[in-house]
Amino acid sequence: MKRKWMVYASWVAALLTGLIVGIVMMLQPGADKQNSLTRLFSPSSENAARVMGNTYNLVLTRTYLCGVRDEEYKPVTANRLADMMADYKGWEIVSADAHKLILLKREHDLSPACKENGYFGLNEDGMLTLFHGLPKEQEVVQTFYRINTAKMEASLSKEELENLKQGIRIHDLAEYNSVLSTYGEFQLMEEE
């Protein structure tokens, strides 16, 4: 784990150094490279203050097991970027450019929205589907597989069938997995 953090820290340091040098070089097209580097790291350099004050967009992307993906945007100055990375230990660096750094975290849980208002049901095509709200509202979050409704009707009670049609409320990951497990045996295979 410590080695992984060292890789992230060195990557960010290299990115920032390259970015700063590149920006200074672009700002001074007629100057030679050695002279530009000296000016960059000089404490009285106006360019160094301007570059180090640049604001990046830090994009924090989370993906959840229920198919939800959310993003949070945080502005951060270049000189605070390395410190901010310590706060996001365990996040993957997805991409970085001169203005934006995107980090990704794969959450092994349901999103807060799914926990708050998630329902399993069948869509109009007979697919087991996770909805935000009741299935009749048709706000699809995630679609899984087509259900063999004839097999399901022969195996389950009318109450269980009606529950699925009306929507089965889920509150946590255990309920989510339980529904997937229960209805997985009624999955319609391609050849059926």
TrEMBL record:
**TM region positions:** 7-27
Coiled-coil annotation reads: none
Q: InterPro entries recorded for this chain? A: BofC_C, BofC_C_sf, BOFC_N, BOFC_N_sf
**Boundaries of every Bypass-of-forespore C N-terminal domain copy:** 59-103
Q: Has keyword Membrane? A: yes
Supply the alphabetized keyword list: Membrane, Transmembrane, Transmembrane helix
Keyword Transmembrane in record: yes
Q: Which residues form the Bypass of forespore C C-terminal domain?
A: 109-183
Pfam families reported for this sequence? BofC_C, BOFC_N
In which domain of life is the source organism classified? Answer: Bacteria
Indicate what this protein is called per its UniProt record: BofC protein
Origin organism is: Brevibacillus panacihumi W25
